[in-house]
Amino acid sequence: MRHPKRFAHLLPLLALACSLLAVTGVSGRETPTAELERLGVSTERLARLDAALAGYVARGELPGVVVQVNRAGETIYLGAHGWRDIENQVPMSADTLFRIASQTKAIIAVGTLSLQEEGRLLIGDPVADYLPEFSETTVAVPREDGGYDVVPAHRPITIRDLLMHTSGVGYGYGPAADRWAEAGIQGWYFADREEPIRETVRRMAELPFEAQPGEAWVYGYNTDILGALVEVVSGQPLDEFLRERVFEPLGMHDTHFYLPPAKAERLATVYGMGDDGQLFRAPDESHMTGQGEYVDGPRQSFSGGAGLLSTAHDYARFLEMLRNGGELEGARVLAPNTVRLMTVDHLPGTTIFPWRAGMGIGLGFRVRLDVGGEGVPSTQGEFGWGGAYHSVYWVDPAEQLVVTYFTQVIPSGDLDDHDKLRVLIYQALVAPPR
Q: How many other C-beta atoms are found inside a 10 Å radius of the C-beta of residue 325?
């Protein structure tokens, strides 16, 4: 059991916060037992989730979390536990804003597929049809002496490669890391850049990639490249495109690349888990963990791979749209057939997806193929992903379930909260909704 020494004096306050801030139901109102029973949820069993999350905070393993769980389109659990800022004793609240990092990728995938629906692109198209600098890409091939050779790509990178992370483009730490470092393009954080994403991607195309297109699953700048492609195809800056196509139709009023100053105080503080198992406050001056760039930064680079900030409420609305076949409350973003296309395995019969145990890869998501693959509750067809700050989400169509879990911990060490979250949600589902 971890008890960070530097926060020991706060543990009584943490425990008190857990009891005061644990919320079940919409907007802090407790969901009536009869409603939960109608939705096939055991009130007694659902309370175990409160206790578990409160325990992580009380033990100093998590600073604070916000969790929203929907079933059949209705919120069965909304919990805000712990602290937005431990040192200043600012409690976590349901409207806290989080850096959602790679959870941005699903939103860009939806935007890309909306352009296919309009006939403005096909995901089988070469990226070079829209970003000409990708017409002749190269790959760095390691040599035994520690160096590398640069060879031409065997085939063009397609939009579908970008959606599946099979383009061979990493985060700049592959065999040609020296070239990527010299170009100043490494890592997934873009908020501090004074260069528009289109220009960064233009320079990126000149660098050697990590693998041949289609021959490996390489997690990297794929979705940032997609964001630049969306700007070119739509003729709009990425933030404007997403606001018109996704955020405004779905009522996602708290989802931004950069925060309006009036919302700055709602941004959660970032913490990390040290090798000693102790929670520590991340340095404010760090680009990845500080508050500054999201409020006072250059506001130039819209990272489609990891740039958005959002709330549990907003992201749950996005996921409900997907669960509902592309539509939410009369606002249609995608057609049902497009959502089905995005949430099936696009790499059947291959072994290049590293989390292959029970998983496949769709267009913007990982997809559950085998319930027994990981030994945690789920159903076939569930899809989701997560973010670098230890957030996670999934949609389970069979159980009519949407789960959004936000915290801000990087690195997160060996925390087991994601699996515990999954177990405690599914064990509370005792019947189909009626």
A: 16
- Reply yes or no on whether the pLDDT at 20 is more than 50: no
pTM as predicted: 0.92
Catalogue the E-assigned strands of 153-302.
271-273, 279-281
User: Catalytic: 234?
Assistant: no
Q: Give, for 327, the enclosing helix (H) or strand (E).
A: strand 327-328
Q: Which two tokens stand for residue 243?
A: 């606001």
Quote the strand ranges of 106-163, DSSP E.
138-142, 148-152
Could you tell me how far CA 397 lies from the centroid of its own chain?
Answer: 19
| Dihedral sign from CA coordinates of 373, 375, 381, 382 | negative
Q: Write out pLDDT tens, residues 367-386.
A: 999 999 888 899 999 999 99
> Using the 8-state DSSP alphabet, how is residue 246 labeled?
I
DSSP characters for 349-409?
Answer: T---STT-TTEEE-SSSEEE--TTSSSS---TT-EEEE-TTS-EEEEETTTTEEEEEE--B
Count the Cβ atoms, other than its own, within 10 Å of residue 152: 10
Tell me, what DSSP letter sits at residue 282?
P
Among 19, 93, 102, 114, the one annotated catalytic: 102
Determine which helix (DSSP H) or strand (DSSP E) holds 296, and give its type and residue range.
Answer: helix 292-296
